[in-house]
Amino acid sequence: MPLKPFTGSFTQQEALGEDVIAAAISVLTSGRLHRYNTVAGEPSKASELEQAYAAYQGARYCLACASGGYAMAIALRAAGLGQGETVLTNGFTLAPVPGAIASAGGKPVLVEITADLVIDLEDLDRKARSTGARFLLLSNMRGHLADMDRLSDIIRRHSMILIEDCAHTMGAAWNSRKSGSFGLAGCFSTQTYKHLNSGEGGLLTSDDPDFMARAIVLSGSYMLYERHGAAPPPEVFDRIRLETPNMSGRMDNLRAAILLPQLARLEDSIARWNERYRTVEEGLKSVEGLVLPRRPEAERYVGSSIQFRLPGLSRSGADAFVAACKALGVELKWFGASDPVGFTSTHHSWRYVDPQVLPETDHVLSTLFDMRLPLTFTLEECRHIASIIAHCAHGLPPPAA
User: Fold this and answer.
1) DSSP state letters, 320-359
2) Is the pLDDT assigned to residue 2 strictly greater than 80?
3) Least confident of 59-73, 308-322, 331-345, 379-393
4) Would the pLDDT of 4 be above 60?
């Protein structure tokens, strides 16, 4: 009997709910969309969001800004990155990460990844030593956390500054310590396909007062930094306010207002994503030749997407597999494609980055497939999707000897 096609949308997010709509209407009715357009004694929605997210993250300070990419770029600038200075980052990430390094004036040097899709700590140690780099912009790509205890040891040993890209790990943790809290700063995204949805948006957290004061001024606070609810005290700004440029990238009150109710139910959303992840994972575990990334016990992940590999698959076989899944309604992204497709790209297409040799990363990515798991999918739909992937994988030619 032919397999029934899947008819759901991999880009359809959940409706934002009546409380979110009411919050948006309240801001629109007020007319005060700019974060500094407040009345006396009233905190802005952006300031309220900063306080709420700092509390959720367990951080002293938080800055709401225009995007996750912007958060990374101003984090590097606020941390003191010099023009042309080396910044290490994962060989497997999305283009906004090396893009943030380039926009901040840095030079990306890429580190190999492992078969479990995390940064290779041995290669990180080697490249930290050989380059003398002061910075690691760690990308927790597709929600996978490296051994953060070992990584922290390497950072300390080389006296490096760690900034975490947590676009895919908002709410994740390693040994109960939140992703984004292992270094100087954590950078988060609220773009539509992330864990909170404001279309575009970003959050930057830190416990360092001087760093955060510089980031707030860089974000475009003018001299209105006292209107931030999760900011350092005024005396910290006195030291840096006239020597730090204004590079406007603020979040507005409308986006902040619609994020606040979503943040209040983030833990529930995480539980629901993980149900969907485990359902698809269970359906793929027994597929011969299909390899899922290992999830360590120490990792609390957020399964808003799932990845798997088909080692030994040829390029033509990978193309045929993606096409077969698509014909049955399942949209996969393949990281071995020669050209970028939508959000999917590899270091070979980042021509603003010096060409680099990453044989292990290229080997892993050549047969790596990725799929979103929106909360609009039911668990039964997740089982259906897994059955389609399994069916298409069974029809593949055997790997080359």
Assistant:
1) HHHHHHHHTT---EETT-SS-BTTB--GGG-TTS-----H
2) no
3) 331-345
4) yes
Overall pTM surpassing 0.85 (yes/no): yes
Task: Put residue 379 in one of left, alpha, beta given phi > 0 → left and psi -120 to 50 → alpha.
Answer: alpha
369 and 307 Cβ atoms separated by less than 8 Å: yes
Query: Would you say 164 and 183 are in contact if contact means Cβ atoms under 8 Å apart?
Result: yes
The Cα–Cα gap between 76 and 205 comes to 13
Mean pLDDT of 88-97: 96
The residue type of 167 is A
The chain-wide mean pLDDT, for the chain, equals 96
Residue 120, classed as helix, strand or coil, is coil
CA 270 to chain centroid, in Å, comes to 15
Whether 400 shows a pLDDT value over 80: the answer reads no
Which residues fall within 8 angstroms of residue 378, CB to CB, at 6 or more apart? none
Return the minimum-mean-pLDDT range out of 33-47, 262-276, 362-376.
33-47
* Count of Cβ atoms closer than 10 Å to residue 61 Cβ: 24
Put the strands of the sheet holding 86-90 in their side by side order. Answer: 61-65, 202-206, 185-189, 161-165, 135-139, 86-90, 107-111
Instruction: Please state whether beta strands 161-165 and 185-189 pair in parallel, antiparallel, or not at all (unpaired).
Output: parallel
pLDDT value of position 341: 82
Smallest CA-to-CA distance from 70 within 191, 161, 192 is with 191
**DSSP assignment string, 378-389:** -HHHHHHHHHHH
259-277: burial string, b at 16+ Cβ within 10 Å, e else: bbbbbeebeebbebbbebb
Task: Tell me the β-bridge partners of 372.
Answer: 305
Q: 190-232: per-residue pLDDT in tens?
A: 999 999 999 999 999 999 999 999 999 999 998 999 999 899 9
Domains and CATH numbers, the chain: 18-264 (3.40.640.10), 266-394 (3.90.1150.10)
Using 50, 70 and 90 to split pLDDT, how confident is the model at 401?
very low
Tokens of 151: 């990584």
The Cα–Cα gap between 177 and 386 comes to: 32
- As a whole number of angstroms, the distance between CA 86 and CA 134 comes to 7
Angle between helices 253-264 and 45-57 (to 10 degrees): 40
